[in-house]
Specification:
It comes from Podospora australis. With 560 residues, the protein is α+β, with helices and mostly antiparallel strands. Helix content is 53%, strand content 8%. A hairpin with a 2-residue loop joins strand 5 and strand 6 (424-428).
Length: 560
């Protein structure tokens, strides 16, 4: 009898779940029909946290089924970042706007640039969906997870540290660290740790410019696990790689469960990393508070952490909601570590591998770098160099055009909203998710030419000028969304650009990167094609879009 109930109870719960999901799906479908655009239906919301932990594995096997069973809306749309694989195809089939219906919500996808910019400007009509960003509430609420007055307060505080003084620090630190990284890479017969090393570089730039802590670069194979930088890096990376699991369980659950978990279990290691990173942030927070007391009135340089702590102290003094709570300080410290280092690091990795597969672009970069920097080996000034290195910046822009690291999502508020899309007026119901189809509009031949799917940085440069005197093209607003648009664009946009350009300058003025042949007789052309295939077929989102296994294409660095 007991065995019967053991089988019956899960069966009943499953049946209830299926019935409830079916009713919700039918209700959402009926609402979506009134929008008047093409509709696709999928049985599971692709942002369901539990589904996100297994989506790619499940669909891998489902796609092996014959005919329609393996090729349908479920296999095409029911996973994270499906847009990156579909590119323009869905809008070619369904027009500028279409809807995907799930049991949880209605998803409205849009690729019309004018309508996109209209949505970005209407911040109150299309606010950020905080439900979608809760995954970043690992250590507290932050700029990515709050709305209304809280968002305005946090945005103002965080924006204060992104200034030209700070960008000079980013430039200097990026040059120092990238020179050390290049020295390490040039000593290796082949480099299989490009992604890890670029993460280290980006993390250390952020540590210096954002948090006032300077670390020496350590190559992945030379790193000492006992060093403070390694501990910090390891803890942060483990947390970022397991954000979905942490969101499902919660840091507090991990902390409480840790005494009962064997040390070899993944959850135990994850709990330890969360605790270690929390200690690291607490130490920084307390250290900055001490600095504020001892340096009061001395005009100490502003960093991100000093801005956050100053705001938290204002909150403590007034209690009037004008600053940040301590947990919000920790939340924003984590958010900046996530948004300010992992996004740039993944962009670096894509760019390095694209360059390895395109030696002619490396020559194009070197031409500009010699024109701007000359034979000077050391003193590259931010003010005179960065604004002129347009080709280096074009590499970043072109990489983000094809592989946008962070997907953008917003939603409709509590009221119906009308939107002009071309000659049509579309009315969106409350709580509809709005998704800018960045992967479609950024590869649309109407705006980017017949080779829109080809990685070609020179498309961003106006023709006619000499290297070092060139300008970027003026693109139509809404056709490139690499840092979002409108009031909610990325506050660290120039921070990331300065870091990227300084690193490209170091790596490619006097050096080349080549893919290492992986089997006897493989030519350089074949190796370059293999790298491009790896980028296209082995890139996917974990938390952010990234190359999953760049180590499968080792690289070698050689002086020109």
């Amino acid at each position: 009898m007991a065995f019967f109930w053991i089988l019956l109870v899960p069966a009943i719960l499953t049946a209830i779940l299926v019935i409830n999901s079916s009713i919700s799906l039918a209700r959402n479908y009926m609402i979506a029909r009134k929008i008047g655009v093409p509709i696709r239906v999928i049985p599971i919301d692709h942002t369901n946290p539990l589904w996100m932990t297994v989506d790619r594995k499940v669909l891998y096997y489902v796609r092996k089924l014959p005919g329609f069973l393996g090729d349908n809306s479920f296999t095409r749309y029911n996973f994270r970042c499906w847009e990156m694989y579909d590119r323009l195809r869905q809008h070619q089939e369904m027009g500028d706007a279409f809807v995907i219906v799930t049991p949880a919500r209605i998803w409205f996808y849009l690729s019309n640039p004018e309508a996109l910019m209209d949505c970005f400007r209407r911040r109150t009509d299309f606010p950020r969906c905080v439900e979608m960003t809760e995954i970043l509430n690992v250590f507290g609420k932050n700029l990515s997870t709050v709305e209304g007055q809280q968002w305005k307060t946090q945005r103002k505080i965080i924006s204060t540290c992104f200034n030209e003084q700070n960008h000079k620090v980013v430039w200097k630190e990026s040059l120092l660290l990238s020179r050390d990284m290049l020295s390490y890479w040039s000593r290796q017969p082949s480099v299989m740790t490009s992604a890890q090393d670029l993460r280290t570089l980006s993390l250390h730039v952020l540590s210096a410019a954002g948090f006032g802590r300077h670390y020496q670069f350590e190559g992945h194979t030379e790193r000492s696990n006992a060093s403070a930088a390694a501990s910090y890096n390891s803890s942060l990376q483990t947390i970022l790689d397991n954000c979905v699991l942490i969101m499902v369980l919660g840091p507090s659950f991990l902390a409480k469960a840790r005494p009962w978990l064997p040390g070899t279990w993944k959850l135990a290691k994850l709990a330890d990393k969360c605790a270690a990173f929390q200690r690291y942030m607490t130490e920084q927070y307390e250290e900055e508070k001490r600095k504020m007391l001892t340096q009061k009135g001395t005009g100490a340089a502003k960093t991100l952490i000093s801005s956050l702590v100053s705001a938290s102290q204002a909150e403590a003094r007034t209690g009037g909601g004008i600053g940040l709570s301590e947990s919000e300080v920790y939340g924003n410290m984590f958010m900046m570590n996530f948004a300010g280092h992992d996004t740039t690091a993944h962009t670096f990795t894509f760019a390095i591998y694209f360059l390895a597969a395109n030696p002619q672009v490396q020559d194009w970069l070197s031409e500009e770098l010699h024109a701007v920097l000359g034979d000077n080996q050391a003193d590259w000034k931010y003010a005179s160099s960065f604004p002129r290195l347009k080709r280096c910046l074009a590499v970043m822009l072109e990489t983000l055009r094809l592989y946008t690291i962070v997907a953008i999502s917003k939603w409709v508020g509590d009221e119906h909203v009308s939107l002009q899309v071309g000659r049509r007026t579309i009315v969106l119901p409350p709580k509809t998710m709005w998704i800018p189809s960045y992967a479609a509009v950024q590869t649309d031949p109407k705006y980017w030419g017949p080779d829109a799917l080809t990685w070609r940085p020179s498309r961003w440069i106006q023709a006619g000028a000499k290297p070092g005197e060139e300008e970027l093209i003026v693109i139509e607003r809404g056709t490139f969304l690499g840092w979002s648009e409108g009031a909610r664009d990325c506050p660290g946009k120039k921070f990331s650009q300065v870091e990227f350009v300084a690193t490209m300058a170091t790596l490619f003025r006097d050096w080349r990167v080549h893919p290492v042949p992986v089997h006897d007789g493989e030519s350089q052309e074949e190796a370059q094609k293999r790298v491009l295939d790896l980028i296209e077929h082995d890139s996917a989102p974990l938390l952010l879009l990234q190359m999953l296994h760049p180590e499968r294409a080792p690289l070698v660095w050689r002086r020109r």
